[in-house]
Design goal:
Blueprint: E1 5-8, H1 18-27, E2 33-38, H2 50-56, E3 64-69, H3 77-83, E4 87-90, H4 98-107, E5 111-116, E6 134-138, H5 153-166, E7 172-176, H6 184-190, E8 194-197, H7 199-207, H8 209-218
Parallel strand pairs: 1-8, 2-3, 3-4, 4-5, 5-6, 6-7, 7-8
Bound molecules: D-xylitol-5-phosphate and zinc ion.
Length: 219
């Protein structure tokens, strides 16, 4: 079983102090930094783009786990790679040709992730699972932090974990949305090895990030 990693989402951070917040996350034991990129088109919210990622790059050596909730996504992949992303995760619905987008991310020597929205079935990406480094399972409808975890996603995580084991594949299983102290254990037991969290990490225990990261990981 892979070590459980925590990827705090900066969507819940203080956007006026993002550099400092990222340093705080690193000092508090984060394994990755989850950067939620939204365009107001693929999802009904707008956040940041490549210029901000570029300026944030110097604040940490932790991997930037960049979640692109944008469409069309293919033509922007290189911008995000050049800005300093380490993992580039895209939604299959956001690209004309998923194979080409996966190939491009790999050509740019970045790790490739594919994200499944709550209502997107596994079968649309099953044949690509051998090509990708990470599957990002959405446990909320993308666009906002602070939403409630969708319980039906547990079965989806289990199903993907079974496919991974049966085919002896190595991709990471990352779960994103509404992760908290009462569901993280079940999410990990279902087969996730990376947890994304924004609200729980930044808000619980009076914002004691170190304690919140340790608690999530220890479940
Ligand atoms: C939602 C984002 C998630 C979100 C997680 O579209 O992809 O990463 O920020 O935030 P919480 O942990 O608050 O649900
Ligand atoms: Zn995300």
């Amino acid at each position: 079983m892979k070590k459980i990693q925590i990827s705090p989402s900066i969507l819940s951070a203080d956007f006026s102090q993002l550099g400092k917040e990222i340093k705080r996350l690193e000092e508090s034991g984060a394994d990755l930094i989850h950067v939620d990129v939204m365009d107001g088109h693929f999802v009904p919210n707008i956040t940041i783009g490549p210029p901000v990622i570029k300026t944030l790059r110097k604040y940490t050596n932790l991997p930037f786990d960049v979640h692109l909730m944008i469409s069309p996504v293919h033509k922007y992949i290189k911008n995000f790679a050049d800005a300093g992303s380490d993992i580039i995760t895209i939604h299959p619905e956001a690209t004309e040709n998923l194979v080409d987008s996966i190939k491009l991310i790999k050509h740019l020597k970045k790790k490739v992730g594919v994200s499944l929205n709550p209502d997107t079935e596994i079968d649309i990406i099953e044949k690509y699972l051998g090509e990708i480094d990470l599957i990002l399972i959405m446990s909320v409808y993308p666009g906002f932090g602070g939403q409630k975890f969708i319980p039906k996603i547990i079965e989806k995580i289990k199903k993907i974990y079974q496919i991974k084991k049966k085919n002896d594949l190595t991709f990471d299983i990352e779960v994103d949305g509404g992760i908290n102290f009462s569901n993280s254990k079940e999410v990990i037991s279902a087969g996730a090895n990376i947890l994304v969290s924004g609200t729980t990490i930044f808000k619980e225990n009076n914002g004691n990030i170190k304690k919140n990261i340790e608690t999530l990981r220890s479940m």
